[in-house]
């Protein structure tokens, strides 16, 4: 990935919790304006890496750069405006869809207008008439779209997706995949997507990163998930297909 501008750069990043090293000297970068997929077995450290990239945790060692700026130099609010995150559970507040969409603005002491809220629903292909519906009444796929729309309130140039389709049926998952590809293409949003599905990773990704035991063992063009170089990645892919 030479000569490609990086949205996020990792330099010797390590992280430990309760005396156990979870991430070990991660190096590399995620290309700007592309969809990168992050795959690997459970416990590899993928979600922990996301917590570091979003400022929920701080690395014990090493440096993380967001668009060339050290993550330690970001104000926490500015960081989360730059690096948004959507989670598997798509947690909803009590109340309406509008109330849920308004949360990021309220945390800044600001208001989200009805017109802005309607625009966000259109972006994620939700009916504007859902604005006054209770969020808890939405289907799983609708909740996930709302979660993504809420993340988009701050228009983050980088969007982290942590297993956002793993609890959805195949049709809903496919719709979310199309939405994310649209966001990437229409707004040049940098997407980094943790997925347990290699099929999904191959379908949506431009670049792939394989994590095992807290390390990035192989990275490159998405083709590496079909023709990996390392034996460990070959065994991981073979195990996924068996």
TrEMBL record:
<dbReference type="InterPro" id="IPR017871">
    <property type="entry name" value="ABC_transporter-like_CS"/>
</dbReference>
<dbReference type="InterPro" id="IPR003439">
    <property type="entry name" value="ABC_transporter-like_ATP-bd"/>
</dbReference>
<dbReference type="InterPro" id="IPR027417">
    <property type="entry name" value="P-loop_NTPase"/>
</dbReference>
<keyword id="KW-0067">ATP-binding</keyword>
<dbReference type="Pfam" id="PF00005">
    <property type="entry name" value="ABC_tran"/>
</dbReference>
<dbReference type="InterPro" id="IPR005670">
    <property type="entry name" value="PstB-like"/>
</dbReference>
<keyword id="KW-0813">Transport</keyword>
<keyword id="KW-0547">Nucleotide-binding</keyword>
<feature type="domain" description="ABC transporter">
    <location>
        <begin position="8"/>
        <end position="238"/>
    </location>
</feature>
<dbReference type="GO" id="GO:0005524">
    <property type="term" value="F:ATP binding"/>
</dbReference>
<protein>
    <submittedName>
        <fullName>Phosphate ABC transporter ATP-binding protein</fullName>
    </submittedName>
</protein>
<dbReference type="InterPro" id="IPR003593">
    <property type="entry name" value="AAA+_ATPase"/>
</dbReference>
């Amino acid at each position: 990935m030479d000569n490609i501008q990086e949205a996020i750069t990792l330099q010797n990043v390590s992280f430990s919790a309760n005396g156990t090293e979870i991430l070990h000297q991660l190096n590399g970068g995620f290309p700007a304006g592309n969809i990168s997929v992050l795959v690997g077995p459970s416990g590899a450290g993928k979600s922990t890496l996301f917590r570091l990239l979003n400022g929920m945790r701080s690395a014990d060692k090493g440096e993380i750069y967001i668009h060339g700026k050290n993550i330690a130099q970001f104000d926490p609010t500015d960081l989360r405006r730059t690096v948004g995150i959507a989670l598997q559970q798509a947690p909803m507040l009590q109340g309406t869809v509008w109330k849920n969409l308004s949360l990021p603005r309220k945390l800044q002491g600001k208001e989200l207008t009805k017109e802005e809220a309607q625009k966000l629903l259109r972006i994620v292909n939700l009916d504007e008439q859902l604005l006054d519906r209770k969020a808890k009444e939405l289907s799983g796929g609708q909740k996930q779209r709302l979660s993504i729309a809420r993340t988009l309130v701050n228009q983050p140039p980088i969007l982290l997706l942590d297993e956002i389709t793993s609890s959805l049926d195949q049709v809903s998952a496919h719709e979310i995949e199309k939405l994310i590809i649209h966001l990437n293409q229409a707004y040049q949003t940098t997407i980094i997507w943790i997925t347990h599905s290699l099929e999904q990773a191959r379908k949506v990704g431009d670049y792939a990163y394989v994590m095992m035991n807290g390390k990035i063992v192989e990275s490159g063009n998405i083709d590496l998930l079909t023709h990996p170089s390392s034996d460990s990645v070959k065994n991981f892919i073979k195990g996924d297909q068996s």
